[in-house]
Description:
By secondary structure, the chain is of the alpha/beta class. It is 40% helix and 17% strand.
Amino acid sequence: MKNNLVTNKAIVMLGCFDTKGEDFAYLRDLLLNEGHRVYSVNVGVRGSTAFFPVDLDAEPIAAAADCSLSELRSGGDRGVAVEKMGLGAAVLLKELVDTGMVAGVIGMGGGGGTHIVLKAMQTVPFGIPKVCLSTLATHDLSRQVGSSDIVLIPSVVDVAGVNSISSVTIGYAASAITGMVRWRATEAIELDSRGRIAISMFGNTTACVDACGKMLRDLGYEVIPFHANGTGGRTMESLIAGGYFDGVLDVTTTELADELCGGVCSAGPDRLGAAATAGIPQVVIPGCLDMVNFWALDSIPWHYRARQLYSWSPDVTLMRTNVEENRILGAQLADKVSMAPEDAAVVLFPLAGLSQLDAPGGVFHSPEINAALFDSVRDGLAGRTEVVETPWHINDPEFASVAVETLVGLLAKSTTHGKARKNV
């Protein structure tokens, strides 16, 4: 056996040991042979396993979801059982993480097992390795994975006994978590910076984000960009809520428009809420609120077919937002930002245009529509949050300078600056 890579931590092995004990025994042996401690968690409602010792069995997991294992067994409803065990596993896995004993998490499963494993893994913070070997790995599991950094590995065959194919894919999974844990323990670096800044971007705001990023890095900040494609916004919000950032430069709030109009880049109703709740400095810009994102032209809902549309690429079609939508978006933005503590937020207007397409001569350029947005934000904030108006376009270098100066000014006054989590 190799020397322990992380002597005071363990890899949590999670799954239904009642039906897949042989598979997990093989996985456990592979991890032990690599020198890891293994903490086994059984989420199977039918029973346990005699193949290896179980550290946390199913009864307390069911109890953590406010039910009993006998109730789940007698109820005969597989869907309820899967949901309850997922909820309970999430609660107890988070408790294990909070003790500091978790080096990584690995799970395997079919349909039900995958749901339970992914539900639990979503509670594990970014930076703790998470691997799931699944029969569903090639399907769309975006809802189950959420904004978590979970690595999915296709099982190729069912997880139902070790054979010449499953032994290879289980070996892949074991090697993946081993490599991740080893790298995390020995190679992960912590940049020496004045603070960590989240910034949102899109192709239509790249010039602004590039300029802001360079200026902030020159000032000694670490800048982490998020693509405002729905998943990016959700991930940024979750990391802000997790305490990873000292400040936010929210250049591209376009996901609000997709949430309102049913576009494909919605980040959900909670977008733009985490920074205000956390009380960290944020500069909010209505970047790309002139557009809603859809896939190819033939995928656009019929009630939008007569609207102003632009083919950004063969697979992406943009729709220009109208006056009424901008009034609603302005009110929503104002409502979210106004929840921030005093002197923790500024809304910054690029009066000459909100995106690359909304520039003079551009296909989406419409000062009248933008005016409805700006007026709505002003009315909604009603003096509760500072609004800074600039005469520039969002991609002008002068605008980027104002954005950075404004954020740095907020950081200088902030009592939360420097308190972001140093290890992710």
